[in-house]
Specification:
The complex is a heterodimer of chains A (304) and B (214).
Chain A (H helix, E strand, L loop, with lengths): L1 H31 L8 H10 L11 H18 L16 H22 L3 H32 L4 H7 L2 H25 L27 H26 L7 H25 L8 H17 L4
Helix pairs in contact in A: 1-8, 1-9, 2-8, 3-4, 3-8, 4-5, 5-7, 5-10, 7-8, 7-10, 8-9
Chain B lengths: L2 H19 L3 H21 L6 H29 L12 H21 L11 H18 L3 H22 L5 H29 L13
The chains are: A mainly alpha (304), B mainly alpha (214).
Chain lengths: 304, 214
């Protein structure tokens, strides 16, 4: 029974992840006064891509084929580590938040390897940018989670989230806010959202994440799209778990509150994308260093 | 723990970080204005046993001067000197933002070492006061424009005020107002001086003041 209960959360995440992108797109369409694509369009896209054939260049090696699969595998593994509302995580052990950050790192590393494997200069450029920015967003996320770990005195994500209650808002509310902001910036940067990268751009010179996957097609590209959606969902789960700790005791209320917060988060991301312009590439590191600074602030401030 | 005072302290740290990270003089002046308003709230939050009327009067005076009058004066100077709205740092914004947490950690350590004779409202007060002073000093030495020197001076003064407001519990109203008047005159004179320097030399880069030595 417990294992079934534990399986609900990751499976739910795997199913619901692309919906988040659908909500973001709907919000952006709403801001622009369009009807926009259907809410389930990301699902249709992935389904369509999975039924296509893939084309591999003769100049690529096995890395190019393995990359999307490893990325997907790493991200699905990460899905097993994060609890959601009252739903427990599938796996829980001491220090799992470090594994979580580095699973994202592994996924990114193979995307970069694939990009370099094609030998395309555009993809090399995208890879260089991605690595630069992720080197700055990774400490922001790690230190932010470490700050939460310090204030809850647990080093496992599940325990951290369980002990983040509405009482903790009174005790270290400012820390939650700082970490929340840092994680929001990380979420925008890691999922190539607007202040950092424009997911809709089709100019190779300015793309960051999309430019690295230009040569992937068919099922591989479907995997990549799905991995991106899942990553967005997972980072959202972390953000919601820390910033909006609803612990009423009733599992239904807790979980549905978290779910509503995820939808709100998607709408907020859509609103940010609609109301902000993209930052100059030179200013992105400044934003990410700012996020890291907020995390450090949360870590050192407020002695326990 | 006094949570409201803590939140004000955290906002003070954030305004300092914004000052170190922003590249526009106008944005810097607005940030200093916000910092001034936050400081104005401080006397009401750290209850030090004096009369409420006294506190409200002091609060209003601080908000008026540091939140409205100083930024207004500086904004006017900025407008008068046309088209030089960049901060032009010697130490880059990213680097400043990396150095800031290090300075904050050092201030936290220093604050924990310091033995204070009186009880203070929040454990953050001393570190934040020192951090504000350090940021002000850093602004003065690491930015090129003369206007940022004035901002740095104001931020330093704010830091000293944070320290004073929470330590020297019963500072007489007259002393506080005297300090405010001094700062007012200083900002006023510096604004005029910057305006004149700008009219004479068509720039206000402080690193080129060396040439005046002749």
């Amino acid at each position: 029974m417990t294992i079934v209960l534990r399986l609900i959360n990751p499976i739910f995440g795997l199913v619901a992840a692309p919906l988040l992108l659908g909500i973001i797109n709907k919000t952006k369409a709403g801001f622009a006064g369009r009807t926009g694509q259907p809410l389930l369009q990301p699902y249709y896209d992935i389904w369509k891509l999975l039924h296509k054939g893939a084309v591999y260049s003769r100049s690529t090696s096995w890395v190019f084929v393995a990359g999307p699969l490893i990325g997907l595998g790493a991200t699905v593994t990460a899905a097993a580590l994060i609890p959601f509302g009252a739903l427990p995580a599938l796996v829980m052990f001491q220090g799992d938040f470090i594994l979580l950050v580095y699973l994202f790192g592994l996924s990114r590393f193979f995307t970069v390897l694939c990009a370099l494997d094609t030998g395309s200069s555009f993809e090399g450029m995208g890879a260089s940018r991605e690595v630069t920015f992720s080197a700055l967003s990774e400490p922001a996320m790690l230190i932010g989670l470490a700050a939460v770990a310090r204030h809850t005195s647990y080093i496992s994500l599940s325990q951290m989230f369980l002990s983040t209650t509405s009482d903790s808002w009174l005790e270290w509310g400012p820390v939650s806010v700082l970490v929340g902001f840092a994680l929001l910036i990380v979420l925008l940067a890691e999922n190539c959202r607007i202040p950092v990268d424009d997911p809709n751009t089709h100019l190779e010179l300015t793309m960051i994440h999309e430019v690295m996957v230009l040569d992937h097609g068919g099922p591989d590209f479907g995997f990549i799209l799905y991995t991106a959606a899942l990553k967005m969902w997972l980072l959202g789960q972390i953000l919601v778990g820390i910033a909006v700790p609803v612990r009423s005791g009733n599992p239904w209320i807790d979980t549905s509150a978290s779910l509503i917060c995820m939808v709100l988060l998607a709408i907020v991301v859509g609103a940010i994308e609609s109301s902000m312009a993209r930052l100059k590439l030179l200013h992105v590191p400044q934003l990410l260093v700012g996020a890291t600074t907020l995390s450090i602030l949360a870590l050192v401030l407020l002695p326990r | 723990m006094n949570t409201t005072a803590d939140i004000v302290m955290i906002f003070l740290v954030l305004t300092n970080l914004m000052l170190l990270g922003s590249s526009r003089l106008g944005a810097c002046i607005r940030t200093v204005a916000v910092q001034g308003i936050l400081l104005g709230l401080l006397p009401l939050l750290v209850k030090n046993g004096s009369f409420l009327v006294h506190l409200i009067f002091l609060s209003a005076a601080i908000i008026c001067l540091k939140g409205i009058v100083f930024p207004g004066l500086l904004m006017r100077t900025l407008r008068d000197m046309d088209a030089q709205h960049d901060v032009e740092p010697f130490v880059g914004y990213g680097m400043s933002l990396i150095l800031a947490p290090l300075a904050l950690v050092a201030c936290m350590w220093f604050g924990s070492q310091l033995m204070l004779p009186v009880e203070i409202a929040s454990s953050l007060v001393v570190p934040v006061a020192f951090f504000t002073i350090t940021s002000g000093l850093f602004l003065i030495v690491s930015r090129k424009k003369a206007l940022t020197q004035v901002l740095g001076y104001l931020v330093m003064e704010n830091g000293i005020y944070v320290f004073g407001a929470s330590i020297a519990a019963r500072q007489p109203l007259l002393v506080e107002l005297g300090i405010l008047l001094d700062v007012f005159v200083a900002v006023f004179v510096m604004g005029i001086a910057i305006f004149h320097i700008n009219r004479e030399f068509e720039h206000t880069d402080v690193d080129r003041l060396n040439k005046l030595k002749g």
